[in-house]
Design a protein that fits this description.
This protein is an alpha/beta fold. The chain folds into two domains: about 160 residues, Bordetella uptake gene, domain 1 (D-Maltodextrin-Binding Protein, domain 2, 3-Layer(aba) Sandwich), CATH 3.40.190.150; about 120 residues, Periplasmic binding protein-like II (D-Maltodextrin-Binding Protein, domain 2). The protein has a six-stranded mixed β-sheet, sandwiched between helices. A three-stranded antiparallel β-sheet has the order 8-5-9, sandwiched between helices. The protein is globular.
Length: about 325
Amino acid sequence: MNREISRRRLLTASGAALGWLAMPSLARSQGEGLSQPLTIVLGFAPGGGADNYVRLLAPFLSEALGQPVVVENRPGANGTIASRYVKDSKPDGTTLLFNTSSSMAAGSYTMPDLDFDPIEDLRPVTLGVLSHYVLIGAPGLKANNWPEFVALAQSEPGKLVHACVGVGSVNEYIVDHLCQQAGIKVNNVIYPGGGPAMTDLLANQAQFMTSSISQSEGYIRQGQVKALMIAAPKRAPQLPDVPASTEFGLTGVDQMAFWMAASVAKSTPDEIVRLLSDGIAKAQANPDLMVKLGAMGLTPAAAGPADYEARLRADHALYGQVFEAKAKG
């Protein structure tokens, strides 16, 4: 009798253990972290702004989730190689995509042959950070503000060189949208990154560009470039003397911010999505990380899956309008 009871208890315990091991990699109980290490997949090469952000975030997110977090770079095709990889990954919460607004919201327009939909084929987790862009002019530009720039462009149609950082980037869409509203034409010259673009701007080889606050702030303060406006709803605390685009009656461009956001495979369970979203929010609320992000001109924006999806779809619609207007000439 005792032997039979012991045997039943052993079988019950063994079954429970096997069931535990078979569970997906989510919280074992309320408040616990993931059961396995987390891999952040990034669609850009090491050393850039996107890479710097996720590597800053990783140790804080590791603490919030109670698991090691590693960053895996899968650069190429404006972030879509990484998106496809995560789309096809196991939906257990251990593979987390961080990608940019250019790739997620505009990718389907700039890459018409893309064999998947970044919006429909991935599941939103949360926005990470966002940053608004500054429209800056070369030191020799014969304009000191947006109205003067428009007048100059009208007098020299198609001659002002825009040092554009990447095809299909937010930088390109901002300038396209500005030109459409102002009724002007410029010469888009594509650069492989912000560094080379800034070098030519400082040398007056290009006349203007859009740049992140963190990249441009020092040059603006030292008078090496001219700050024409910031594409934002209001002035930035870092650059209080630079007018916001809304002050000139411009619409839509204030929405065109650079952002980084997290996504997972489409069929990832709700519990895991909430766990990851809460973990990112907790990590970015850390005062030490907030200081570091502020120094990069980044604003924490973690607000959950629903808010991220709403932002993603709104941006996608706006970029579509700009893309179609440009295609019509």
